[in-house]
Amino acid sequence: MRGTKPTLVVDNGTVLRDIKAPSWMSKDAKAEWRRVFPVIRKRRILTTADLGSLENYCVALGTVREMERTLQAEGHVFSAESGPKRHPAVAIQSDAMTRALRLASELGLTPVSRSRPAVRKDDDGDEPSPLDF
């Protein structure tokens, strides 16, 4: 995503309670959920609509870690009849890293996304104007 990113704002559906990682996630994905969920919840930028993005981020990062273990055990290159070939886990890991980075940015987990203006708190009770940016 290029250009100026929109300012993160508190939504009425902000998740304020602790939510456990879905049971279907891998061990690595659950570990990432436990690491980032409290941070995002504390910032009050996570809404129920964003939980899918958080799940996808955690799954992508879990895949990165799983592929790294595979590559450490089996190597980045293997011998084939036609000569050395790149291990398929290299491409899988690269794709997962790209997805994780994009989702981390959307969730405010990167240095650049955190440096954006602070979360706006609309405590006056007024409905947000469609002209507010």
From TrEMBL:
<feature type="region of interest" description="Disordered">
    <location>
        <begin position="112"/>
        <end position="133"/>
    </location>
</feature>
<dbReference type="Pfam" id="PF05119">
    <property type="entry name" value="Terminase_4"/>
</dbReference>
<feature type="compositionally biased region" description="Acidic residues">
    <location>
        <begin position="124"/>
        <end position="133"/>
    </location>
</feature>
<dbReference type="InterPro" id="IPR006448">
    <property type="entry name" value="Phage_term_ssu_P27"/>
</dbReference>
<protein>
    <submittedName>
        <fullName>P27 family predicted phage terminase small subunit</fullName>
    </submittedName>
</protein>
